[in-house]
Specification:
Helix content is 50%, strand content 13%. The protein has 9 helices and 6 strands. The chain has a 6-stranded antiparallel sheet with strand order 3-2-1-6-5-4, sandwiched between helices. It has 2 domains: 84 residues, no CATH class; 140 residues, Beta-Lactamase (2-Layer Sandwich), CATH 3.30.450.40. By secondary structure, it is of the alpha+beta class. It is globular.
């Protein structure tokens, strides 16, 4: 007698469980895990380098002490830890300049026309969300992301409508194997009409974008008055793009310049204030 016959079913047989494609689900999960690992591996060196700078500069006893200082300044001035760490590493050390009071006068913030921001003095996160919504409104899509230029590469800081695999894989971008990388390098808008056939992508990047449901994308550099790309906004589209009108491109360019100028102002003022506070606090704790 079979093992099944020894345990008869007590009730009616229900519908068979719905078939699932377990290998496909496992592959998707592994891709997400790999993207998350990639993100963490790229994120760690910037913070660690800033901790090392603080330890050497102020003779701090351990990396944890340096991290506490970074975190406190980040929270006090509403600046992302990565942004503050990048500014600390890039800024030459001048004790006299660093000791300047953060209450010093500063130029007014540049205007941000077209952005849906209600705060009189918005913080950087509000501006980044505002420019993302503005670009997606103009390009008529619900998928997109914002990146900041830090440490010679682009770091994703805002996104909507994109998969976890996508945001992890493209958390940090350097080189020109993507449309955003090309737009940053050439400081111009780049339209990819069809991701499936565009030569700009390497095959790994192309696969991640297509699996996110994007068949086309458009990248708008955030450029300051000096002509430097300090960030990037990219829209993603479910179908291949025919392109954009001249009016759309002009509005996107104007938005990119306005926000690029604001980000440069923010780095010269608010981020500089945070560095001054960091210097004062670290000096007092030595």
């Amino acid at each position: 007698m079979s093992q099944e016959a020894e345990f008869p079913i007590a009730g009616p047989v229900g519908p068979e469980p719905e078939a699932t494609d377990e290998p496909a689900e496992e592959i998707a999960r592994l891709r997400e895990d790999n993207a998350g690992l990639r993100e963490r591996l790229h994120a760690r060196p910037g913070i660690s380098l800033a901790q090392g700078v603080l330890m050497e500069r102020y003779r701090l006893p351990a990396p944890d002490a340096a991290f506490v200082l970074l975190r406190e300044a980040s929270q006090r001035f509403n600046i992302k830890l990565h942004t503050l760490a990048d500014a600390l590493v890039r800024t030459s050390y001048d004790p006299d300049a660093a000791a300047v009071s953060p209450d010093r006068s500063r130029p007014p913030a540049p205007a941000l026309p077209g952005l849906r921001i209600t705060a009189e003095h918005p913080h950087q996160g509000e501006v980044l969300s505002g420019v993302l919504h503005r670009v997606l409104d103009i390009t008529r899509t619900g998928m997109g992301n914002v990146q900041l230029a830090e440490g010679g590469r682009l770091r994703m800081v805002r996104h909507t409508g994109l998969t976890r695999e996508f945001t992890g894989f493209f958390a940090f971008v350097d080189g020109q194997s993507t449309s955003c990388g090309q737009a940053a390098e050439e400081r111009r808008q780049v339209t990819v009409r069809d991701v499936a056939t565009a030569e700009v992508f390497d095959e790994e990047s192309r696969g991640v974008i297509l699996r996110a449901g994007s068949r086309a994308c458009h990248s708008v550099p955030l450029v300051n008055r000096a002509g430097v790309a300090v960030g990037m906004v990219s829209s993603h589209h479910e179908r291949p793009l025919p392109g954009f009108t001249r009016a759309q491109l002009q509005t996107l360019e104007a938005t990119g310049v306005a926000v690029g100028n604001w980000l440069s102002w923010h780095r010269r003022t608010v981020v500089t204030d945070a560095l001054a506070h960091l210097h004062t606090t670290a000096t007092a704790r030595r």
